[in-house]
Design a protein that fits this description.
alpha/beta, Rossmann fold
Length: 383
């Protein structure tokens, strides 16, 4: 049975489904979901690329940031980094390789946990991080029934668990009292969202055996989210919200007894929405081509929506963490790199043309025309 047929069968059995359920099936169905099918979605040959696909400098700069966090925590004898949705593990490899080379004291105390529930991606992690897994510095937990399908670049959404009163929780390698850094890059933009329009909340029904959009009344909680953190859609507009992401980040924040939370993602603030920006950000990606049609190829295209950082920051504060700053990726990376004139970036360059190539790659990470202004960075801590 095709994924589209699976979706249509569920609608016949359960009635109209909210868009979040459609997005959840498309991305995270255990057999035919986009992230479950294979591990080749990333990079130039896939459907999209992340910062780690551009150059190792992203991991190198973050390795320096993580080492500074370790020192800010008074150099504890053990530190765990928990990465959510690590994909193929390129970022983790770059962080660990650079830390081993440049920050040996920090590296000797580090355990790097990669939470990933896509079997194909877990297999890729075993290849990418073979050396660090063998030494025990990196850990890829096996799926367990209590954790399966809860969170990762290749998991189901948390929505079903939240609806049943069981919000998702992270899986740690070390003891709960051990200082923890939770890191994610392009993780929240793939969490299933609800779509609200002026006429109500988007659902999918069947009409003449074809998917058909209808609007039903939103919940009081969804309307309150718009009041507090977003904007109410004008006629013709569509606004995305993700209540499960709010509950999920609350669980993550409570897990950090001492440490940091660092989230990097496509995103916006409520003030930007009030100014007329980011009012409808859902997109589909396939082979580096963007489309506004999420129904074209279920399971064969990535579906994403920009992240509401005002809402994430509020949930983080309510859980007891202190927000350090909300920056753009450009501001964040420039602040790390300028301290040593970006020596991490250019250290391996021997020829002028190599330096020029790396400079262009760095420019893409920090410039407004590249990723620099489209990505937001949320940094929070509990000391």
């Amino acid at each position: 049975m095709s994924l589209r047929a699976t979706i249509e069968q569920e609608i016949r059995e359960r009635g109209p489904i909210p868009f979040s359920r459609y997005m959840e099936i498309c991305l995270y169905d255990a057999d035919q979901g986009y992230y479950a099918r294979h591990a080749e979605q990333f990079g130039k040959a896939g459907d999209f690329y992340t910062s780690s696909d551009i150059h190792a400098v992203f991991g190198r700069l973050l390795a320096r940031q993580f080492e500074e966090m370790w020192r800010a925590l008074d150099r504890p004898p053990q530190l765990e980094i928990l990465e959510l949705g690590p994909g193929r593990g390129l970022f983790a490899r770059d962080v660990l390789d650079w830390s081993k080379k440049k920050f040996p004291d920090f590296f000797a105390r580090l355990t790097y946990t990669l939470q990933e529930s896509s079997p194909a991606l877990r297999a890729r992690l075993q290849q990418t991080l073979r050396e660090h897994l063998h030494s025990g510095t990196a850990v890829v937990p096996e799926e367990r029934p209590s954790l399966a399908q809860r969170f990762s670049a290749g998991s189901r959404a948390e929505g079903d668990q939240v609806a049943e009163g069981r919000p998702a929780r992270p899986c740690r390698t070390l003891a709960p009292k051990t200082p923890l850094i939770v890191f994610s890059n392009e993780f929240f933009d793939a969490r299933p969202v609800e779509i609200l329009g002026a006429q109500g909340k988007l659902h999918l029904a069947l009409e003449n055996n074809h998917l058909h959009e209808i609007f039903l009344p939103p919940s009081a909680e969804e309307l309150e989210f718009l009041d507090r953190y977003s904007v109410h859609p004008e006629p013709g507009e569509r606004i995305e919200i993700s209540l499960p992401a709010q509950r999920w980040i609350t669980q993550i924040a409570h897990t950090i007894e001492r440490g940091f939370l660092l989230i990097i993602d496509y995103g916006y603030t409520r003030n930007q929405q009030l100014a007329g920006h980011h009012r409808g950000t859902l997109m589909a990606y396939r082979q580096h081509s963007a489309s506004a049609n999420p129904y074209q190829a279920p399971g064969e295209q990535d579906l994403t929506a920009h992240v509401n950082f005002t809402a994430l920051a509020a949930a983080t504060v309510q859980a007891g963490l202190q927000i350090q700053e909300l920056l753009t990726q450009s501001q964040f990376l420039m602040r790390i790199g300028e301290a040593n004139q970006f020596a991490d970036v250019f250290e391996d360059c021997r020829l002028p043309q190599e330096r020029a190539k790396v400079a262009l790659q760095l420019k893409h990470l920090v410039s407004p025309a590249g990723m620099g202004e489209n990505f937001q960075v949320l940094l929070a801590s509990r000391m």
